[in-house]
Amino acid sequence: MINKVVTGPPAALEGLADGMTLMLGGFGLCGIPENAIQEILRLGVKDLTCISNNAGVDDFGIGRLLQTRQVRKMIASYVGENAEFERQLLSGELEVDLIPQGTLAERIRAGGAGIPAFYTPAGYGTEVGEGKESREFGTKMYLLETGLTADFAFVKAWKGDTAGNLVYKGTARNFNPMMATAGKITVAEVEELVPAGALDPNQIHTPGIFVQRIFEGKNYEKRIEQRTVRAAAE
What we know:
The strands form 2 sheets. Strands 1, 2, 3, 4, 8, 9, 10 and 11 form an 8-stranded mixed sheet that branches. Strands 5-7-6 form a 3-stranded antiparallel sheet. It has 6 helices and 11 strands. The chain has helices spanning 9-12, 34-43, 62-67, 83-91, 101-113, 176-181, and strands at 21-24, 48-51, 71-76, 95-98, 117-120, 134-137, 140-146, 150-161, 166-167, 183-194, 213-216. With 234 residues, it is of the alpha/beta class. Helices cover 21% and strands 27% of the residues. Strand 6 (134-137) and strand 7 (140-146) form a beta hairpin. The longest helix has 13 residues, at 101-113. It has a domain at 18-98 and 149-216: Glutaconate Coenzyme A-transferase (3-Layer(aba) Sandwich), CATH 3.40.1080. Belongs to the 3-oxoacid CoA-transferase subunit A family. InterPro entries: 3-oxoacid_CoA-transf_A, CoA_trans_fam_I, CoA_transf_BS, NagB/RpiA_transferase-like. Keywords: Transferase.
């Protein structure tokens, strides 16, 4: 029986080196690979290109890697909640490729599917389209966008089995499934690790064929990025 389990983050990140391109799942702080990010921080690897929807917040998620200057370039769709990310972008300290969110998702999916490029109307006529090939289909203009891949893809799942099959929970699913297909080495950290065969095949979101290493994570904070509550009744 295939067994892809490793003992923890140090073994899961073996081979990670300066200058590599990483994909990190999550949306805001939801579904981020907390244990993997902490290990990247500990290893101190630098000059990284990170592909993620956003960069967490100042003191959590990828935001921690920005604080330690381990990230050379961000490929993302949203700056929003991270003041340090915004500061480094505006000061020119950080290379940033901002991509429309749907285009980012499709570029990752395409990379994982072995599709080198595709056309999309998103961004045509804006700064997003500068320097890119365009083509008219019907009466509409489209931009040529390339697929994205990475040396490592780090994803977070709710449950996984020893063969690498993954199940995500709710909105924590977000970018994780497509990133899992697009890494040369895909590392999955899960909240619960079960024996192969214990997961209902009909509920599996990422087949184990895409995962090279899996481990059961610990001490998840699962921070809430923006807490919104109703005003107290008078």
